[in-house]
Amino acid sequence: xxxxxxxxxxxxxxxxxxxxxxxxxxxxxxxxxxxxxxxxxxxxxxxxxxxxxxxxxxxxxxxxxxxxxxxxxxxxxxxxxxxxxxxxxxxxxx
Length: 94
Fold this sequence. Notes:
Order of helices and strands: EHEEHE
């Protein structure tokens, strides 16, 4: 089984380089359908606005020990290449 973390509950910061606001919202809806997940979208904090950049800076994903991690990974992979940026201690909620 693929593991994001060995510590539960866990909070992960997930980023996609080119995912639009609408696609982040769709992704969040799909992840929320998985038992044991909670999702928040974090606005892009860039000082300069660029039309090609997403309005969303990251997806904050909270998972519990009951979460089907393989299903979560398959959902994340469906939307393209993603990056896990931080653990729960490094995430600042806005």
